[in-house]
UniProtKB/TrEMBL annotation:
Family matches, as InterPro entries: PM/HMP-P_kinase-1 (IPR013749), PyrdxlKinase (IPR004625)
Keyword line: ATP-binding, Kinase, Nucleotide-binding, Transferase
Pfam families named among the record's database cross-references: Phos_pyr_kin
The encoding gene: pdxY
Name listed for the protein in its UniProt record: Pyridoxal kinase
Membrane-spanning parts: none
NCBIfam families (alphabetical): PRK05756.1, pyridox_kin
Stretches assigned to the Pyridoxamine kinase/Phosphomethylpyrimidine kinase domain: 78-261
UniProt GO molecular function: kinase activity
């Protein structure tokens, strides 16, 4: 599988492409990383250095890849943190170019906007553009529950919500274009204490998986989740299998990170859990 991944890059730590590329490679896939920013570290530290890349330059890199004549072999496009509002049109154009060359290719959009604890942490011009221009061309969308609420105008999803409301929002998003929606960081009203959940929704059904909640904040966990789910969905053709394998790997990476006492994801140390997921968490059909 060959994946064009348009995301941020950091020199220190693991977010964006710096979180997605190695796990995809560890699964045996070729990745063509294109950077939207190149920072010293992720912005969660409160201070960082490095440039937001000019959208025109991002487009030039993609154009150069196209000129190698390889887009017909591209199986998927993956996008995450965009950096600046104008990058959205570059991503949409890249998706059109890839799909023109290979109609079977898919596009996964991780609509990076914010989360329930931090609120919106990107340029405020970006979320409306993602909602109006990017989401409609996506095949797979991987929002956290907070981002799902923004896209659908459901402010109540910024806190614990009913399963019915979460599924209704996922269905609303699917009506905009994406065939598959993976909702991460699910805060379900009535869920047992000390757990966190993830839900996958397609036209064939919906599935939920639950893991213990680890006492940590892990920047980049959404980026590796989107990457692994994309890969597993392609190779298995099953959203339920992709959900189970993705959650197993991400949980073990987070557990290894917590045990290490380090702030950044321990991707290298936990690489065996990425390559061979321990599918021990039950995936339950919701419908």
């Amino acid at each position: 599988m060959r994946i064009l991944s348009i995301q941020s890059s950091v020199a220190y730590g693991h977010v964006g492409n710096s979180a997605a590329v190695f796990p995809l490679q560890r699964l045996g896939h070729e990745v063509w990383p294109v950077f939207t920013v190149h920072f010293s570290n992720h912005t969660g530290y409160g201070a960082w250095r490095g440039p937001l890349l000019d959208p025109a330059d991002v487009g030039e890199v993609i154009m150069g890849i196209e000129e190698r004549g390889v887009l017909p072999s591209c199986d998927a496009v993956l996008s995450g943190y965009q950096g600046s509002p104008a990058v959205a049109s570059v991503v949409v154009d890249a998706v059109k170019r890839v799909k023109a060359a290979n109609p079977a290719a898919t596009y996964t959009c991780d609509p990076v906007m914010g989360n329930a604890k931090s609120g919106c942490f990107v340029n405020p011009e970006i979320p409306p553009i993602i909602r109006s221009e990017v989401v409609p061309v996506a095949d797979i969308l991987t929002p956290n529950q907070f981002e799902l609420g923004f896209i659908t105008g459901r402010d109540e999803l910024s806190g614990p919500s009913s399963l019915e409301d979460i599924l209704a929002a996922a269905d609303e998003v699917r009506a905009l274009g994406p065939a598959t929606v993976l909702v991460t960081s699910v805060e379900r009203a009535g869920a047992p204490d000390g757990v966190i959940e993830m839900i996958a929704v397609t036209g064939d059904g919906a599935w939920i998986v639950q893991t213990p909640r680890l006492p940590m904040k892990a920047n980049g966990s959404g980026d590796i989740t989107a990457a692994l789910f994309t890969a597993h969905l392609h190779t298995t053709g099953s959203a339920a299998l992709a959900l189970g394998r993705t959650v197993a790997s991400v949980y073990d990476v987070l557990a290894a990170t917590l045990a290490s006492g380090e702030r950044e994801l321990r991707l290298i140390a936990a690489q065996d859990a990425i390559a061979v997921p321990d599918e021990r968490f039950e995936v339950t059909a919701l419908r």
